[in-house]
TrEMBL record:
<dbReference type="InterPro" id="IPR013078">
    <property type="entry name" value="His_Pase_superF_clade-1"/>
</dbReference>
<dbReference type="Pfam" id="PF00300">
    <property type="entry name" value="His_Phos_1"/>
</dbReference>
<dbReference type="InterPro" id="IPR050275">
    <property type="entry name" value="PGM_Phosphatase"/>
</dbReference>
<protein>
    <submittedName>
        <fullName>Histidine phosphatase family protein</fullName>
    </submittedName>
</protein>
<dbReference type="InterPro" id="IPR029033">
    <property type="entry name" value="His_PPase_superfam"/>
</dbReference>
Length: 211
């Protein structure tokens, strides 16, 4: 690389307290579990020797909580970017695991007609574009250094597939975006040259509701 090297880390939030097992999406009031708080601290420790100069998070509580230890470790205020928010979903507040009522009810079937868009929520392309905008804003804020953007599983995974030139439609069971994982974009000036992935807090099952 011959230009200015900047790294933008996309950090997925930690585990969420969700005893009802619902798809909480953008609903307010979903905070980190005790385990999620520990995961956030593990990531902050993992990043301790990095050159972090900018920390920004989704406006949702779980993302803000995950960002706090990172900001504290580098004595940085946590900024907020609405573009990092969870994907919109028409099944918010319902149980959607295999066998649960929401997906078995005929009244919900019209929402499932097009999995490639998808018809039940925010279009993948819109997610990718807003996340890319957030990435470039963070890159500009941390030019020559590193930034941390705290977001959510589907937006981070959609951005990665978009940047890698893969179809954004995918099997949710195969997402490589564990709780408190880091998907890192390495830029040479404004050009993306590499994508890296690491799980500082260990792997987790992408199918688990509340994760």
């Amino acid at each position: 690389m011959s230009g200015e090297r900047t790294v933008v880390h996309f950090l997925r939030h930690g585990e969420v307290h969700n005893p009802e097992g619902v798809l909480y999406g953008r609903l307010p009031g979903y905070r980190l579990s005790d385990r999620g708080e520990r995961q956030a601290k593990v990531v902050a420790e993992f990043l301790a020797d990095r050159d972090i100069t900018h920390v920004v998070a989704s406006p949702l509580q779980r993302a803000q909580q995950t960002a706090e230890p990172v900001g504290a470790a580098f004595q940085l205020d946590v900024a907020t970017d609405d573009r990092l928010i969870e994907a919109g979903n028409l099944f918010e507040g319902l149980k959607v695991s295999v066998g649960d009522g929401a997906l078995r009810s005929p009244s919900h079937w019209p929402k499932l007609w097009n999995p490639f868009r998808p018809s039940w929520g925010e279009p993948y392309l819109e997610i990718a574009h807003r996340m890319l905008g957030a990435a470039h804003r963070a890159r500009a804020r941390a030019a020559g250094h590193e930034a941390v953007c705290v977001s959510h599983q589907l937006p981070i995974w959609t951005l990665r597939r978009f940047l890698e030139g893969r179809p954004m439609w995918h099997d949710p069971r195969r997402r490589q975006c564990a709780l408190a994982s880091l998907t890192s974009l390495v830029f040479d000036d404004e050009e993306l040259v590499r994508i890296a992935y690491v799980e500082p807090a260990g792997g987790t099952d992408p199918k688990v509701t509340g994760a």
